[in-house]
Amino acid sequence: MDHSGHGMTMDLPPFTLGRGLEWSADPFFLVACLLGLALYGWGVARLVRRGDKWPVGRTVAYAAGVLSIGLMMCTKLNDYGMVMFSVHMVQHMVISMVSPILILLGAPITLALRALPTASRGRKGPRELLLMLLHSRYMRIITHPAFTIPLFIASLYGLYFTPLFDFLMDTRPGHIAMMVHFLAVGVVFFWPIMGIDPGPHRPGHLMRMLELFAGMPFHAFFGIALMMGSTPMVGTFRHPPASLGIDALSDQNAAGGIAWAFSEIPSVLVLIALLFQWYASEERQARRKDRAADRDGDKELEEYNAYLASLNARGS
Which residues are within 8 A (CB) of 219 and not within 5 positions of it... i.e. 6 or more apart? Predict the structure, then answer.
């Protein structure tokens, strides 16, 4: 069966990286990626025109995140991913864990709030609607760890080990919906942890690390479960086309190894980003204290010395 309508997946030759990277665009994701890049570019251009600066690193990170989605969904990786569990797992891991981190490093919400014009009094424009959404009860719920961590876990176990996965893979709209879901889950999971864009929850650096490590082990366990399986566990990939020349169980084992490996890569990336943020935060706080000391002649130190002198006087 040609599950998605992307192409003649039954006649795909054996997978190689070169074949996987050939152009084969999914129209939905092609338009979405181009639109995402265009809107971000408009925001940066608007800031530059009015004399404001926007970090180049953020632009590069955002573009890399969007292009990583295009790489997964607008090449033949998407066609092979319909019939090979291992290739599909690469798509899933990149779109749910790598793409969201890169996009969030680009701070698109911060850019939007700075670039969108403020509506006239008594009216609500795009900027005001975005602020309303950020402060809404709905956003507080879907970005809370009590929601994001179970959702992150359920997107693995509740999808692959139930008939829902086969149902979604059977149609092109279902496949698109599943990939959009992977991206959305990754964004809401990593958004509060990254802490770059404003959001309803602003946990401290230590709490962010705890939230990160609360979800990652389940990816590793999921990968191990696939690698230890003695029979193919997902119906869609149980009978791969003969033209691929692969064994379903071996391909499942490879998919499990990919899921296990990817549980480590984003953890390291996010941890490095958090440590840099933590260091920068401490540096900013130290500079604020230095400026305050310069203004008041280090009043805090003088008060502490006076306190020590009073203790000394009482002791003598």
Answer: 156, 259, 260, 262, 263
